[in-house]
Design brief:
The chain is of the alpha+beta class and 87 residues long. The protein has one domain (3-84). The protein is built from 3 helices and 2 strands. The protein has helices spanning 3-16, 53-63, 66-74, and strands at 39-43, 46-50. A two-stranded antiparallel ribbon has the order 1-2. The longest helix has 14 residues, at 3-16. It is elongated, with a radius of gyration of 14 Å.
Length: 87
Amino acid sequence: MDIYEEFIDVITALQEAKIDFTVCGGFAMALHGLWQNRMPFEYAGKTVPTVSALGLAKMKRLSGRLQDLADIERLGINPDDPAIQPD
């Protein structure tokens, strides 16, 4: 089984078990408030809750790495936007 099939199997099992979850970066789950702003994403015929673009930008801003700051700009968000500054 390849990684994509495993991904779909895990998502399917979680949804069938009616378990709330989100797919995002590793430490994103440690940030408060991102779950309320999740967005549905369609992948291989399944709806997958994911972190919102603003939530992703906030996580990337928190890390502060140059690549993450560049990613924020690619999302069309200003890295200095008060909405994504660490609390």
